[in-house]
Amino acid sequence: MDSQTTPKEQELDDGGRRRRDFVRGGFSLGGAIALASTASAAQKDDHRMTAARARTGGKLLVRWLGGGVTEIATPDYKQIAYGDAWIWNNAGWERFGVKKPPEYASAKGFATYVASKKPDAVFVLLTHDHGDHMGDYFEMLKALSDAGLPVKTTGQSDMMRSDLGLVPKFRKAGLEPSKIVVNGGAGMNFGGVSRHGEMVAHLIPALHSNLCCYPAAGFILDIGGVRVYLSGDTDLFGDMRLIGERYKPDLGVVCVGGGPFTMGPPDAAQASAWVGVSHAIPVHYAHNGLVLGVEAGEQYRQAASHVAPSLQVSVMKPGEQRLITV
Ligand SMILES: [Zn+2]
């Protein structure tokens, strides 16, 4: 295919920004799917290609599962991603007065639910190893594996592949790291890429920590023709501008809980402005006594209305789902 840039693509520039030329030989408006199927391996690892893609016609469903955890899927549920893995033990539902439905209330219920979707790929993205993010991680992977589902996980490479990291825990859970972790067990490091099914993930920095050692992270995830910024737990930091410039994400899933651990609503609003997303969902609040309560979502919306007036904010309750289109 020849390089091409149509007027329509140029119209996609929101906020008056001019997106960099995005076609460098092999894909156009089809998004991640076209990228995955037509570019060579070397081309696919060229960040200029993934960075500067204009998107249109993309659709995904995102459901908040409480705390910092989300379920992100194509509308047909053939591609499903989980941003972190604290599901049935997730304590982020009670304060909203929402009862967890059976599909998120036990490992068995969850595996049955995911299997009912007959997915082509299930991708579990682990930002870091704190309990409110990986509390059900191993049991979740095992339950999905045992159900015969095409599940893979990714995260920071040394955490994934080192005996000082998660390797002993994978084995203890009955999971073979080289099979359940993408890239033959290597996961990925910053600047690296992971693929599963038609989903593509990049590891990006977060200003946070892990209990075990290695750096905490966030993700850029391409799914359904939409590019998602998953902040993970983080403070505000200046390179969020670079993340925006480099990856140009559409949807932000942004921690807003404040308290001892992460940025709160005003800084999360600034972060969203810097990464340049057009849609955002506040997460990581009301799930323990140290972070902000249910009011944090609206506080984030308020703060965003000042620093990013065109940002579409979806404040949700756990279990709610939104269709995001770009
Ligand atoms: Zn954390």
TrEMBL record:
Report the residue ranges that make up the Metallo-beta-lactamase domain in this protein: 118-285
What is the name of this protein?
Metallo-beta-lactamase domain-containing protein
Could you list the residue ranges forming a coiled coil in this record?
none
